[in-house]
Amino acid sequence: MSFAAFLPDTQKHSFSVSGQFLMSAYGEDKYTPFAMVETADLTIEQETQELADSYSGSGNYDKLYNVKAVTLDFAVKTFQPDIIAEMTQGAATTRDEKTVTDEEQTAALGQLVPLKNIGAGDYQVMPSAGGQPYVAGKDYFPTALGIIPLKGGSIVEGSKIKISYKSRAASVVDWLVGSGKERSLLFHGINKANRRDVVVEVFRGKFGFPDKYALLGKDFRSSSLKFEVLADPRQTGDGISQWVRETLLTT
Is 84 helix (H, G, I), strand (E, B) or coil? Predict the structure, then answer.
């Protein structure tokens, strides 16, 4: 007789899942989209307690398994300012476009002195004592960071100059100014193997720092990020997880 696998139902139990994570401050249950995540791997680290078998003198008489840590490892592929702030324990703010008048600097020939509002254009540069405006390309080289006074131009080394410019609107993230906050995560996706919805609830936890944060490269920016899952005391009852719940829709 040839072999044939016995399958008690026709429901597929293979998985190829894509979807989106959402994030909420823990306890608020108000979720907003998290970054685009390429992969998310859950690791359960265990610790054991062993009771040696003193009757026989070999092996164990009993063994207990306890959860030591539960960790989600994310491969993050998009970097909204609030997500960068989350990853770096930072603070995200926005800056409106504005016109800055007569910001004073000390000229350093061939060197850049950054502006107070980085990301600028429409320069007008003049001597602080007054006089004719300096000429871009002849007296200074303009960049988004500020100006570079040129050797051979009219700007004198060490002289005081006034710079007026338009500061462009920007998102600004200050790194390492806060501490990790407790979050709840919610995943909603589709299992492409059977076209059914998949929902994963991660009740409570904290993001760690990225293993590596790509600032420069030929490929799209990516980063590995860990989320340490913590037990949620709000989840109570027999058979109710305080850590993670996965719901696999069957219809």
Answer: helix
SS3 readout for 123-151: EEEEECCCCCCCCECCCEEECCCCEEECC
Angle at 188 between CA 221 and CA 236, to 5 degrees: 120
Do residues 138 and 174 make contact, with C-beta atoms less than 8 angstroms apart? no
pTM here is 0.82
What digits encode the pLDDT tens for the residues 49-104?
999 999 999 999 999 999 999 999 999 999 999 999 999 999 999 999 999 999 99
Q: Taken in order 103, 106, 111, 113, is the CA torsion positive or negative?
A: negative
Q: For 108, what's the count of Cα atoms within 13 Å in the CB-facing half-sphere?
A: 6
Q: Which residues are 227's β-sheet partners?
A: 72, 207
150's CB contacts (< 8 A; 6+ apart) are: 109, 110, 138, 139, 140, 141
- Looking up tokens 């989840």 gives 235
Tell me how far apart the alpha carbons of residues 230 and 171 are, in angstroms, rounded to a whole number. 31
Which segments of 32-185 does DSSP mark as H helices, in order?
81-88
Angle of CA points 199, 187, 224, to nearest 5°:
140
User: H-type helices in the chain, by residue range?
Assistant: 81-88
Q: CA nearest 100: which of 164, 36, 161, 156?
A: 164
